[in-house]
Amino acid sequence: MDLTTMIVVVVSIVLVFSLIITMVALKHEQKRLEILRGRKDSSDDIARLEQILTAHQAETARLRDRVQVLERLVTDEDRRLASDIDRLKSEQRV
What is d(CA 92, CA 73) in angstroms, rounded to the nearest whole number? Predict the structure, then answer.
């Protein structure tokens, strides 16, 4: 094998390996970009879920306040006393 043929073979082998390495690098970069896009989408989902959670927490706090008011009304002694008086009045009429 002469020198020129050997150089052509070596250059061809180097080019083939370079092409393979470039293809692998491009596939890797493509997967990386897909992952980054997925993270962006998931960060949008996370932001949406945080908004939903905040809304639910506000609604829960509002409902908790209403329950406290209702508990106060039910356990209010004056209201109970007035209810008992009304009940006794209706019993006397019968």
Answer: 26
DSSP structure string for 9-30: HHHHHHHHHHHHHHHHHHHHHH
User: What single-letter amino acid sits at 65?
Assistant: D
**pLDDT by residue (tens digit) across 3-39?**
888 888 999 999 999 999 999 999 999 998 888 887 7
Q: Give dist(CA 35, CA 30) in Å, integer.
A: 9
Q: Using alpha carbons only, what angle is made at residue 31 by residues 23 and 24, rounded to the nearest 5 degrees?
A: 15
Closest CA to 65 of 54, 73, 80, 52: 73
